[in-house]
Amino acid sequence: MDDPLIYARAVHFAATITVVGAVFFIVFVAEPAFRRAGHDARLPALMRPCLAWIAWIGLVVAVLSGAAWLVLVAQSMSDSSLTEVFSQDILWVVLTQTGFGRDWLERFVIACLLAALFACFLSARRGKPLWIKTAAVVLAAALVGSLARAGHAVGGGGFEGIVHPAADVLHLIAAAAWVGMLLPLALVLAAAGRDAASLDIARAATVRFSTLGIASVATLLVTGSVNTWYLAGSISALADTDYGHLLLSKVALFLAMVAIAAINRLLLTPRLVQDDSVAATRGALRQLRRNSVIEVAVGATIIAIVAVLGVTPPGLHEGMMTPHAHHSH
Ligand code: HEM
Known about the structure:
Layout: H1 4-36, H2 42-78, H3 82-87, H4 90-97, H5 99-121, H6 130-145, H7 158-191, H8 196-232, H9 235-239, H10 242-273, H11 278-309
Helix pairs in contact: 1-2, 1-6, 1-7, 1-8, 1-11, 2-4, 2-5, 2-7, 4-5, 5-6, 7-8, 7-11, 8-10, 10-11
This protein binds protoporphyrin IX containing FE.
Protoporphyrin IX containing FE binds near residues 151 and 309.
């Protein structure tokens, strides 16, 4: 666990999932929910700068942790010290002459394009042009999906060489669409409830998030199973390897999150949207707030496990060298 690469990966995954989750939340949940409230609603004016800050901080931390990841990979590729990495042209060689470097440059360009778009996309002005929202969603999905190239999903041949990376890209986008949208949702629920308009927004946001959540959870389960099949697809690979144990603990946390989400959807959301009892509505809002914070914490733990999984030899390959061992950086 003392490998600094694990920490660089964990921070990078978390920051990337945070910025992409914020973009998805603004387009698919917040702005549609804000539209329900009148022009003088307090909550949109309060939340828009908050969501902008989450997106900007996420993007800056993603770029900085990505730079740390690059330096650590350059160091391990060239087996040189940190000083040598900066004093010699090692970084330039890694950037221009390795697959990892080229992928890194592509993702850096995507991050710069997203930053340029944020100037307009994150402005406090209501109603953004459709092309700006579409471009933000596509660039955000590309930023998180392209992480698949640094993982264990690449390296297979034939059918596996297509299906596995494709599943991993969808897995990453679904992870951002669920775990990445939890923090902004928790903030909206925390700020809502003092007036009827904000309660209305909380209702609309919760229902929209929950519906999108079902699609994300289903995608995570299917694409996670594909990942598992190619990387730890046997009982012994799951039960007898470090990789398998990490993956099983990740799936256990995932199931805990799904259980909380089911309570939110089946019990608390109906109580939040009903109009009969204000006390029941406020109680449901309080519980949904608490549950979304718990889910953020469990989601962060899953991302930490993923950071370790990515540098651990896959369960199916532990102790045996295969023709196309899945390598990751
Ligand atoms: C909240 C739920 C989940 C989140 C946030 C999540 C997130 C992630 C992320 C960020 C990666 C890294 C992808 C890469 O480096 O290429 C990953 C990989 C993976 N995920 Fe998930 N995942 C979730 C649920 C699941 C589930 C339910 C399964 C199994 C059914 C699963 C199985 C895997 C496997 C096997 C990998 C490959 C790890 C590696 O070797 O690099 N995940 N996941």
